[in-house]
Design goal:
Largest sheet: 4 strands, mixed
CATH class of the largest domain: Mainly Alpha
Oligomer: single chain
CATH topology of the largest domain: Butyryl-CoA Dehydrogenase, subunit A, domain 3
Bound molecules: flavin-adenine dinucleotide
Helix content: 40-55%
Number of strands: 8
Number of domains: 3
Number of helices: 11
CATH superfamily of the largest domain: Butyryl-CoA Dehydrogenase, subunit A, domain 3
Structural class: alpha+beta
Radius of gyration: 22 Å
Length: 376
Amino acid sequence: MDLQLPDASHPVRQKFRVFLAEHPSPSGRDLAEAGYVVPHWPAPWGLDADPLSQLLIDDELKLAGIKRPINPIGIGWAGPTLLAGGSTEQQDRYLPRLLSGEDFWCQLFSEPDAGSDLSAIRTTAHRDGEEFVISGSKIWTSYGHIARYGILLARTNSEVERHHGISYFVCPMDLPGITIRPLVDMTGDHAFNEVFFDEVRIPAECLVGELNEGWTLAKVTLMNERVSLSGEGALWGRGPTVDDLLELVRSDPRPLAPSLRRRLVDVVIEAEVLALLRQRLVSSVLAGRTLGPEASVRKALADEHGQHVMLLATDLAGLAGQLQGFGPHGTKESDALGWSHGFLYSQALTIGGGTKAVQRNIIGERILGLPRDLEG
Ligand SMILES: Cc1cc2nc3c(=O)[nH]c(=O)nc-3n(C[C@H](O)[C@H](O)[C@H](O)COP(=O)(O)OP(=O)(O)OC[C@H]3O[C@@H](n4cnc5c(N)ncnc54)[C@H](O)[C@@H]3O)c2cc1C
């Protein structure tokens, strides 16, 4: 599979370079208005870009050292859901500032008793005139404390089969009755939150799609989440890669214990397999196919690979690896891409965005055609 990209004379590259000449340090808004945040989306949000154009735009951004706005949940999976199921008014209202990164978004799905079994949610929304009244609680809400809006699943009918009584809302995070409590994770970071809803009134226009049919949109969100979380770095596309690890090891003249050498070779092989799987996904898209459950194959492998990379980095550091702030061969964390932080964070990879058991259920049932999970 040859993914050699066309050179600078390609019209997509030319157009980007004109944009860059006009906006030498483009803001999130500049990038969003030009369609470069989500080029694969239809106009006016994106450029209806075919897969080759997307690759070229990504390459141009990389060459110019320009990063897209940071709003992972907003751009990665709330936005695509609004595009799929939101009204034109909702799209016009929310998407410009979502894509520019001016409004940060969070995801209010998981509850204490509804994670993998998401359709068991108990948070309720009942209609009262021109508003819905929300009561209940959510957990593991990443960035809930800094988000302007959240995508919210709530039960709007308890009398029917549970998948058909759920509705999908946009929830402004500053409404009276919302209490946000921090959950500090084992890296010491505060990213997660508990969010409590005490008879919170949200305007009826915040309902996305049809009443009681939110499960269909929830599936759109979850599929986009799975695809978004499968980039190249070891930590959901962020963080170090095997090449970074190799570079550090090569730069140290001391001999390497055979067990560490073997594990290093193993993670290199995993990385090669993942790169090939990624190329296969890209060529599938180039051939015009829509991605389905195969995204779970890459996520299942990539999550465990990330853990192997970070564990190996810690072991390479020897005793220093047990100290916060050190990486392989005692390198200081600032020189070593946050290895010890990454090791602690990597434990989350096989849980968030669907646990490793859930990915295996999807692969077993939807790709291999095995009998359904007894729990499901
Ligand atoms: C870094 C991170 C960020 C997150 N951010 C958000 C967020 O912003 N918003 C949000 O709503 N949620 C968020 N989550 C929550 C995440 O979606 C849930 O943790 C996840 O869905 C698992 O649910 P749970 O924690 O309730 O575990 P459970 O579902 O209770 O699972 C417990 C264990 O049982 C296993 N299990 C469950 N069901 C089955 C089954 N059918 N077959 C086999 N094994 C099974 C699981 O694999 C797991 O090992 C985040 C999680 C992480 C780690």
